[in-house]
UniProtKB/TrEMBL annotation:
Catalytic activity: Cleavage of a beta-linked Asp residue from the N-terminus of a polypeptide
Assigned keywords, A-Z: Autocatalytic cleavage, Hydrolase, Protease
Name assigned to this protein: beta-aspartyl-peptidase
Broadest EC class assigned to this enzyme: hydrolase
Naturally occurring in which organism (per UniProt): Populus trichocarpa
Positions bound to substrate: R226, I227, G228, D229, T248, G249, E250, G251
C-alpha cells in the first residue's frame, strides 16, 4: 500500500472572469476540507468516514453548489441529491429530490447502512430521513441571495446553463449580445457569478480502502424532478478495489459515459494507471460533453482530469504532497 490520499472538488466549469476574492474563498474552503480529511486519515478513520465528513463540510458552507447554497429549480426551490460508495465491498447509497435534509451525503450513508436498498428519492427519501432522525431544516435554509439572482438571470436567458456552455454563436438566441473578448452578458448585464455544479471527495486510507462521495443541488433553473449524475452509482460516483472517483460537470454527458465506473474499468481491463485512466476517460467518453473528475487509487495516488476551463480541486497524500487549484 502507498499510504493514504485524498482529493476534493467543488465543481467543473468556472467563470473565467471569477473575481479574485471569490477564487481565494474557494481555495480556502478546499484547503479547510483537505485539512479535515488529512486529520481524519492520520487518525486512521476508514476512507468511507472521511469522505462523508468532508462532503458534510462542503454541504454546510454555501460557497459551492450542494446543501446550503444549492442551485434553484425553475420554481425557486432546492432539490438536492447525493451518493456515497465504500470500495471494499462496493456498498453504496444514494438519494435524490431532498428538500429538507441538511446533509444529503449522510442520508445517502444511512440508505447504504440502514436500509435494504441502494437508492431512495423524493417523498420516500424524506420519510426515511424522518425515520432515521437526521437533522431537517426548512427549504429556505438552502437558498442564498446570490442564487436567487442567478435564477433570475437564467430565466431571463431562457436557459438552465449560462457559463462555459453558452457558445458565442448561440448568445443571440438568448437575446444576449457580447463583444469579442468581453465577459458573457445577458440582457446587457455581465455575468460575474458562477455555478459550480457539484462537490465531492475521494479518499484511500492506510489499509488501501477506497471510498467516494458526491453531493449537489443540480442545475440552476432545472425542471423539478430532474436527476443528474451525482446520485447515480457508476456515473457520478464509484469506488471499488482499485480506485475511488467523483465527477462534476455536465450531468447528462457524465451519465451517458458512465464516467466514474469507466475509470475503474479501464484500470482493470486495460491495465492503465490512475492518471492514464482518468485522461483516457475524459478524452474518449465525454463525446461533446464538459466535465471533470477526481480520483484516488488503492496505492495512494491522486489524479484529476477535466475538459472545462477550470475545476475547483485539492489533493493531499501521506508523503506530504498537497495542492489546491482552479485553472488548468
Amino acid at each position: 500500500m502507498g499510504g493514504w490520499a485524498i482529493a476534493v472538488h467543488g465543481g467543473a466549469g468556472v467563470d473565467p472572469n471569477l473575481p479574485r476574492e471569490r477564487q481565494e474563498e474557494a481555495k480556502k474552503l478546499l484547503t479547510r476540507c483537505l485539512q479535515i480529511g488529512i486529520s481524519a486519515l492520520r487518525s486512521n478513520l476508514p476512507a468511507i468516514d472521511v469522505v462523508e465528513l468532508v462532503v458534510r463540510e462542503l454541504e454546510t458552507d454555501p460557497l459551492f453548489n450542494s446543501g446550503r447554497g444549492s442551485a434553484l429549480t425553475e420554481n425557486g426551490t432546492v432539490e438536492m441529491e447525493a451518493s456515497i460508495m465504500d470500495g471494499p465491498k462496493r456498498r453504496c447509497g444514494a438519494v435524490s429530490g431532498l428538500t429538507t435534509v441538511k446533509n444529503p451525503v449522510s442520508l445517502a450513508r444511512l440508505v447504504m447502512e440502514k436500509s435494504p436498498h441502494s437508492y431512495l428519492a423524493f417523498s420516500g427519501a424524506e420519510e426515511f430521513a424522518r425515520q432515521q432522525g437526521v437533522e431537517l431544516v426548512d427549504n429556505d435554509y438552502f437558498i442564498t441571495e446570490e442564487n436567487v439572482g442567478m435564477l433570475k438571470l437564467a430565466k431571463e436567458a431562457n436557459s438552465i446553463l449560462f457559463d462555459y456552455r453558452i457558445p458565442a454563436a448561440g448568445l443571440e438566441s438568448c437575446s444576449v449580445g457580447a463583444a469579442a473578448n468581453s465577459p458573457l452578458v445577458m440582457n446587457g448585464l455581465p455575468i460575474s457569478v458562477y455555478a459550480p455544479e457539484t462537490v465531492g471527495c475521494v479518499a484511500v486510507d492506510r489499509e488501501g480502502r477506497c471510498a467516494a462521495a458526491t453531493s449537489t443541488g443540480g442545475l440552476m433553473n432545472k425542471k423539478t424532478g430532474r436527476i443528474g449524475d451525482s446520485p447515480l452509482i457508476g456515473s457520478g460516483t464509484y469506488a471499488g478495489d482499485l480506485c475511488g472517483i467523483s465527477c462534476t460537470g455536465e450531468g447528462e454527458a457524465i451519465i451517458r459515459g458512465t464516467l466514474a465506473r469507466d475509470v475503474a474499468a479501464v484500470m482493470e481491463y486495460k491495465g492503465l494507471g490512475l492518471q492514464e485512466a482518468v485522461d483516457f476517460v475524459v478524452k474518449e467518453r465525454l463525446d461533446e460533453g464538459r466535465a471533470g473528475l477526481i480520483a484516488v487509487s488503492r496505492d495512494g495516488e491522486v489524479a484529476c482530469g477535466f475538459n472545462t476551463n477550470g475545476m475547483f480541486r485539492g489533493f493531499a497524500t501521506e508523503d506530504g504532497f498537497m495542492e489546491v487549484g482552479i485553472w488548468e
